[in-house]
Structure formats: C-alpha cells, structure tokens
Amino acid sequence: MKAKGFTKGIAQKAAWDMSESEVTPESVFKQRRNIIKALGLGAASASLSTNVQAGLFDVFGNDKPKKAFEVSPLTFTKNQSYQTSEILTPENKVISHNNFYEFGTRKTDPQDNAQGFKVNPWQLKIEGEVEKPLTLDYEDLYKLIALEERTYRLRCVEAWSMVIPWVGFSLAELIKKANPTSKAKYVAFETLYDPEQMPGQRNRYVGGGVSYPYVEGLTLPEAMNELSFLAVGLYGKTLPPQNGAPIRLVVPWKYGFKSIKSIVKIRLVEKMPPTSWNILAPHEYGFYANVNPQVDHPRWSQASERRIGAGGLFSAKRIPTQMYNGYGDQVASLYKGLDLRKNF
Ligand SMILES: Nc1nc2c(c(=O)[nH]1)N[C@H]1C(S)=C(S)[C@@H](COP(=O)(O)O)O[C@H]1N2
Ligand SMILES: [Mo]
C-alpha cells in the first residue's frame, strides 16, 4: 500500500509501490531484490550486512536484539457471539507477516526489528471532549475491563486476509468510562512516537514515507459499535510487538490500516481527525476505508483476497471479498444514505 509520491526521485518503480495482488510472486521477489540492491538497502538485511554503504542505510543497526520478546498467557472468556467456523490463520503467520511501518515496510521487518520494543511502562490516555479523562497504565490495560476472546477476519487493503483470535475488550466500554461530552463526534487514535525504538520513524525509507506518529480515526458511532475492539492479546497471550503491543485497535469491517497499533492516545474530538494513509495518498485511502468489493483501489481490484492459511502468501487461496468484510449485519446501518464511492 505504498503511495506514489514517495518514490519520486527513484528512477524505477519500487517493488513496494505495488500491491502483492498486481504481480506474480516471482516478479515481486526479483523486483524487490533489484530495488534493494539499487538503493543499497541491503544494509537493512542481516544477511547482507558486510560491505555495504554503512551510515546511509545502516538504519536497523542496533534494533535487532538477540532475545525474542516475551509474551504471557492471559485470562479471558470466549465471547460466543464473535466466533467463526472459518479456519484460523496459524499463529506463526499472524506474528510474522505484518504491516507495522514504524519497524520497516517488508512483511517480515516488524518481527525482525521489534523484539526489543519496550511496552512496560506504558501509558494510554483518553482525553479531549470527555468529562472524565483517563490514564491507563500498563497493568490497567489487562485489568480495568474483563478480557474476552473474539475471532475476527482482518482484511488488508493490499488484498490479503487472516482470521485471528484476539483477546481484549470493547472500545465502547472504555469510551463510556470517560463520559464523552455532547461535542464529541469523532475518536482520534495515536501510536507511540519513539524514533529511538522505531527505525521507521528515524528514516523515511525505512518508514515508507508515512509521517509519524501514525494516526487514525473513527466516527463516534463507529467507535461505539459493538465490533470495535481494543486488543491486548492474540492466541490467548499478550500481543507481540509486531502486532501492536501492548494495545491496538481492531475494526474488522474496515481495511487493516484503520486498526492502529501500539496506541498511546485516544482523543474524543468535534471534527474529523487526520489519518495517516489518507494524508499520504488521499486519492487512494479514505477516512472510512470500509471493506468494499465493489469499490476498487485505484491500482488494484478489491473484489477478492488471498486468505492466509498454513502455506505462504502466494499459495494462499483467493476468495471473494465480502461487503464490510462480512460484518454488514452489525455495521451497514452506520452508512445509510452515504455514497460509498465518494466516501471510500
Ligand atoms: N502504527 C501502525 N499501525 C498499523 C500499521 C502501521 O504501519 N503502523 N499498519 C496497519 C496495516 S496496513 C494493517 S494491515 C494492520 C496489520 O495488523 P497485523 O500486522 O497485526 O496483522 O495493522 C495496521 N496498523
Ligand atoms: Mo493493511
């Protein structure tokens, strides 16, 4: 989901300026290899760490700790209203094929570069148009509201999808605790800004040209919808950093980029807040970003998706994409009378 403007000044079309659905696996990997060589980005991969243009591209450098991030088991109930008969995406795929540009733009970069990410202490603030601003410390994330497990489909705008058992709590429950004022019409979210820990925030090549901190937003009715979820875990354990530890949003009827990771701020506001991918490429990524097989991305079709299962991305089965990612019963009423082509 790279924006076009970002590649300005680079002669070739970068491999990342292309959805995985546009091209064959072979051409992706060949082009990616070439562009990585051309840019000297080889320095970013451990296997090519000798004889490189250090300084310019030695950007991951110290960010690769030897020790894996430790996750812990969580206590929760299974919410029977949000289960599925679909095959779950295996855990090893969920935690190794990620988009988290703060740690690099390749799917394996977040797992490779985020293992040393510090999540404790953490503070999540709920503020803005609320009568009772809240600050949640690390422990509160797991204690303030009873945890439940919900299995949701996650549909990335790049036309791949997963089925993931999340652990967390409803966003509405948290917002209610803060007592929104009558002026609150939208909810704005913000990811941690910490360039020392996040190589993508230090270097725009690593970070894909996104301006940081990553920000996202929902209308208040969307945020209060029963499906909107704050996840603190997956597969029964605390989140690994590559999936947005310690707390991230999950809005399953919208493209994955709305599901902002590693959140430090939730702000109730009067006006529609700016959102990162819309800032970067407004003609490609809208505020609503509802999954919609009838409205294509300007550069690829959204009619179908690769469902990631036990095999690799390119052996994944292509299945039709469902309106609102199959959650129309819960959310279609939010968009009555809205032109979904204009409000994409
Ligand atoms: N802060 C932040 N949040 C983010 C992203 C990101 O780059 N930075 N990527 C988004 C995109 S494009 C997707 S598809 C999902 C991926 O979530 P996952 O890696 O847990 O599957 O996270 C979203 N949240
Ligand atoms: Mo995505």
UniProtKB/TrEMBL annotation:
Its EC number is 1.8.5.-. InterPro entries: MsrP, OxRdtase_Mopterin-bd_dom, OxRdtase_Mopterin-bd_sf. Keywords: Metal-binding, Molybdenum, Oxidoreductase, Signal. Residues 119-277 form the Oxidoreductase molybdopterin-binding domain. It comes from the Bacteria. Part of the MsrPQ system that repairs oxidized periplasmic proteins containing methionine sulfoxide residues (Met-O), using respiratory chain electrons. Thus protects these proteins from oxidative-stress damage caused by reactive species of oxygen and chlorine generated by the host defense mechanisms. MsrPQ is essential for the maintenance of envelope integrity under bleach stress, rescuing a wide series of structurally unrelated periplasmic proteins from methionine oxidation. Heterodimer of a catalytic subunit (MsrP) and a heme-binding subunit (MsrQ). This is Protein-methionine-sulfoxide reductase catalytic subunit MsrP. The gene is msrP.
